[in-house]
Amino acid sequence: MTSRIDFNVVDEYKSVKGHWALILGSSSGFGAEISRALAQNNFNIFGVHLDRRATLPAVEELVEELKGYGSRVHFFNINAGDSDAQAQTISSMKQAMSKAGDARIHVMVHSLAFGTLRPFVSGAPEMPGIEGLDPITRKQLDMTLHVMANTLVYWTQGLVAEELIQPAGRIFAMTSSGSEIVIPTYGAVSAAKSALEAHVRQLAFELAPRGIAVNALRAGVTDTPALRKIPVHNHILTEAERRNPSGRLTTPEDVARAVVALSAPGINWITGNIINVDGGEFISG
Fold first, then answer.
1. Average model confidence (pLDDT) for the chain?
2. What is the 3-state secondary structure (H, E, C) of 82-113?
């Protein structure tokens, strides 16, 4: 369990008591830590995740922890990329907020990490640990782009259509430096992150008249379950730690602190950006 996150603006969060945050990808990594940080700062939490039986006990522990901060918490174990499941979940969220007398979501975080890690063509340059992988299929590439990029648009559309995200609301999408550099087997995810950043710019432009800010957070290399699925993750971790001028890797807590700070009342003139949360890693290329 992390310590309470305190800022000079923390007293301002008293004014958002009863507001909600929706975290897409809430059960581990960035999503779990952001859920903790927001719950510690007076937000109620809607969490969307996809977990099998083996990992559900950890999810249940997280839910109880969030409730321990005094938050109302509803987690939905669904495929966030399924349109019917999305519609049903938005309906359930609307009903839950109506019963509690709360009408709007203040923060949405898109932190979905579900994609295929394979080369694009046979005979691609290999590194130790990725020998013999078959090229990615059309279905796998489409799925990766759908889940890791396009769902940002679809969930935003759903919230706006139901008037569930309030004026001065915030939308954050988790991107990575992989949107601009080549990593073995990361091609589909790289494409998804590039598309995600384009979606952020477009949504920021279209939602600005409503006072809703949309930004991408580009975290530095972080040792998360999603990163460990990359076959060359050990190499990525070692190189990032060596290169980072701050002398360490990024942590989920670093990113959670950024979300809390950028969600504070009055911090809504920052929109349409890719914001590095990496201790200077990206500029040290």
1. 89
2. CHHHHHHHHHHHHHHHHHHCCCCEEEEEECCC
Q: Which of 73-77, 91-95, 116-120 has the lowest mean pLDDT?
A: 116-120
Rg (CA), the chain: 18
Tell me the CA distances in angstroms from 73 to 6, 51, 150, one per residue in order: 22, 17, 26
Q: From the CB of residue 74, how many other CB atoms can be counted at a distance below 10 Å?
A: 17
User: What whole-number distance in Å separates Cα of residue 176 and Cα of residue 112?
Assistant: 12
- Two tokens at 46? 């809607």
- pLDDT per residue over 208-217, tens digit each? 999 999 999 9
Homologous superfamily assigned to 15-284: NAD(P)-binding Rossmann-like Domain (3.40.50.720)
Question: Alpha helix locations (H) across 119-222?
Answer: 138-145, 151-161, 187-207
Q: Which of 150, 154, 130, 134 is nearest to 142 (CA)?
A: 150
Domain ranges of the chain: 15-284
For residue 120, which of 28, 38, 182, 178 has the smallest C-alpha distance?
182
User: In the structure encoding, which two tokens stand for residue 242, read together?
Assistant: 């060596």
Q: What is the pLDDT of residues 61-76, one digit of tens each?
A: 999 999 999 999 999 9
Look at the block and give the residue holding tokens 């648009």.
153
Instruction: Categorise residue 206: left if φ over 0, alpha if ψ from -120 to 50, beta otherwise.
Output: alpha
Distance CA 53, CA 30 (A): 21
Q: Residue 117 in 3-state DSSP?
A: coil
Task: Confirm if 12 and 265 have CB atoms less than 8 A apart.
Answer: yes
Which of 285, 282, 283 lies closest to 219 in space, CA to CA?
A: 282
**Start-to-end Cα distance in the chain:** 33
Q: Is the pTM of this model over 0.85?
A: yes
